[in-house]
Amino acid sequence: MPQDVDSSWFNAFRVMKENYSLSDDAIGVFAINLRFNLDDIQTIAAESITGGGDDKKCDVLYVDKERRIAIIAQCYVSQRAREAAPSNKASDLNTAITWLLSANIDDLPASLRGRADELRSAINSGDVKQIYIWYVHNVPASKNVEEELRAVEKSARVALSNYSSGRDINIFAEEICNAKLGRLYMQAERTVIVTDEFNLSVPDAVETEETDWSSIVTNVNGEWLYSLYNKYGTDLFSANLRGYLGSRDSDSNINNGIKNTANTQPKNFYVYNNGVTALVLDYELGRRTRSGRKLKITGIAIVNGAQTTGSIGSLESRPSGDLKIPIRFVKASKDSIVANVVRYNNLQNKLQAADFRSTDQIQERLRLEFESIPEAEYEGGRRGGASDAIRRSKFTLPSYTVGQSLAAFHGNPVTAYDKKSELWTNENNYRQTFTERTTARHIVFCYSLLTAINEKRLDLSSREKQDKLSLTQVEKNSLDFLNNKGANYLLLHVISQCMETILSKPIPNRFDLIFRDNISPGRAVSLWMPIVDMMLSLSNQLESAFSRNRISNESVNRTVPNFVGVVASIRNLQQATFSEFASKVVA
Fold it and tell me: Are 180 and 280 in the same domain?
C-alpha cells in the first residue's frame, strides 16, 4: 500500500478484493458500495465491471433503476506514492461517454453492448435521473484531473441532449480520490461526521422527549444555514444518501425554485418549505427570554432537507435576514433509532422492497434455519444502517440476491435480472419464490449456483484483461456469453431446467433439491463449478435468448427448450460429470 493512502478504507478495500477474488477495477465497485450501500458486492461486481480488453475506457458501468442512478467509472490503483493520478485516464472518460451514449450500438464490443443498451433504455424510460461519472483512484486529487472532468461533464451533457429526457438528468463528474474514499468510508462507519459545536439563538422551541430519543422543533435564520453549507459542504449530508443535486434555470427544477423563493419571498419561505431534519450528537436548550432562547448543538448531519440546505447554501450572496428555515434537531441514544431516523426521513434511502417482508413468517423461519448452515448468514429482508455496507460479513447471503437466484431457478430469469424488487413487492412473485417448501438448504443450492456463475465471469474477465491471449476459444466464447446482460440468470435457469437430465431421475418438486450434506454456500460453489463449465461450453446454443444482448421473456421461452434437448442428447458423453454431481444431491 502506498504510504500516503488512508489505511482505513484501503484495508477494507483489500479485504473485499480478497474475499471475492476481484481485480483492481473493483475499487469502482468499492466506491459505489460506500456511496449507495449496495446489497451484494459480488453480484454487483460481476454485472458492472466490464469484461474483455476492449472496454472503450469504461472500467465500471452500473445502472440501478430503483435508485434511478447510473455510474460510469474509470479506475486506477497505484502501487506507490504519487502526487496525483494520471489525468489522461480522466480524459479517457470522454471516450467512454461517446461509446456508451452516442455510438451505434452495433459498433460496440460485445462486452459493452448489452450494458450500453441497458443504460440508454433506462435514460429513455426515465429510470435514470442522475449519472455519476467517476475517476476512482487511491492517490491525492489534482487540478488537472478536475479540469479534465469538467470537460467530461460537458461532453456528457451534449450526448444526453440527444435523448428526449436527457435535459432532466443531473450529471456529476467527480474525482473519487484517496481523501474522498476516506470520507465515504468514515461516513459509512459514522452517521455524523461534522462534530463541531454550534451556538444559536432561536425565537423559541418545542421539545419532545422519549426514553431513547429527544427532539427540538424550531426555526433558524437562513444566514446560518448558508454559512454552514459554505463551511462544511457535502459533509453535512453524511446521513443523506442523495446529497445536493444542484439546480438549473428551469421551472421544473425544484432546487431552482427554492433559490428563487429564498431570494424573492424570504418572509414566506417558512410556510412554503418543508424544512430540514438533522441528527445531532447532543443539544442544550436554554431558558426562554424576551429575545428568544439559546441553543447549543454538538455535531450535525442533515437527514432530510439536503436540497433546501444546498439551495440556500449556493445562493450568489448571503440571504436576507428575513429568511427563516423550519428545522427539527434529533438526538438518539441507540444505533437502531439513528438508523431508522435516517431510513424513514431520507427519500433516497426509503423503505426498499425487501423491508416489507422482513417480518413475514417465511422469512423468520428461514432466518432460524440458517442458524444451522455453516458459514452462512441470511438477512431475510432485514437491513441495518449505512455501515452495513462495510460490516457485512463475507458469509452473508443478501436478501435481493437470494430472491433473484430462487426466481431464476424456478422459472423467472427475466424478472430476476430486470425487476428484482417485484420479487418482494408483487404478491404473486413473492409467493412463487418464497413458498412453504423453500428451505435454507434449498436457498444454499440455488444461491451457490448463481455465485459459481458470477465467480466464473469475474475470473474470465480478469484473466482476459491481464493477458488477452490467456483464454482458450471456449473460454472466450463463455465470456462473450456471460457479458450479455442477464446471462447469469439465464444460465442458472437452464441448468435448473436440465436437472432431471443431470440427476438421471424425475424431480416432482424442484424446491426439494438440496445438497446431501449440510454444507456452506462456499463449499457448494465448488460442487457446481464442473456443471457450470460444462453448460458454458454449450452457451452458443443460447444466443437466440438475447435481444440486443439482453434477455427477454419471449426469447427465453423460445430458446430454453431447445437447449434442454441438446443437453439431454449428450447425457451419455457427460455421464461422469453428471453422476459425480448427482451423488452430492438429494431431490
Answer: no
Residue 22 has what DSSP assignment? Answer: -
* 1 lies in some domain: no
380 within 8 A of 367, measured Cβ to Cβ: yes
Q: Are residues 324 and 455 in the same domain?
A: no
The number of CA neighbours under 13 Å toward the Cβ of 205 is 29
Rounded Cα–Cα distance for residues 284 and 272 (Å): 28
- Give the domain range for residue 251: 191-349
Structural contact between residues 41 and 16, judged by C-beta atoms closer than 8 angstroms: yes
Sequence-separated (6 or more) residues with CB below 8 Å from residue 239: 191, 192, 279, 301, 302, 303, 342, 346, 386
Domain annotation covers residue 334: yes
Beta-carbon-side half-sphere exposure of residue 199 (alpha carbons within 13 Å): 2
Tell whether 2 is covered by a domain. Answer: no
Residue type for position 54: D
How are beta strands 546-547 and 550-551 bridged, if at all?
antiparallel
How far, CA to CA in Å, does 511 sit from each of 259, 399, 407, 439, 498? 57, 18, 11, 8, 15
Q: DSSP letter string over 559-578?
A: HHHHHHHHHHHTTGGGHHHH
Burial of 143 (0-12, 13-18, 19+ CB in 10 A): exposed
Tell me: do 318 and 179 sit in the same domain: no
Task: Check whether residue 181 and residue 253 sit in a common domain.
Answer: no
Inter-axis angle of helices 399-409 and 440-466, to 10 degrees? 100
User: Over the chain (587 residues), what is each successive 10-residue block's mean pLDDT?
Assistant: 71 87 91 83 88 78 91 94 92 94 88 87 91 96 95 94 88 94 80 88 94 94 93 81 52 68 92 92 93 94 89 91 94 80 62 63 92 91 50 80 96 91 87 94 98 94 84 92 92 97 95 97 97 96 85 90 95 95 95
Does residue 154 sit in the same domain as residue 247? no
On whether the pTM is more than 0.70, the answer is yes
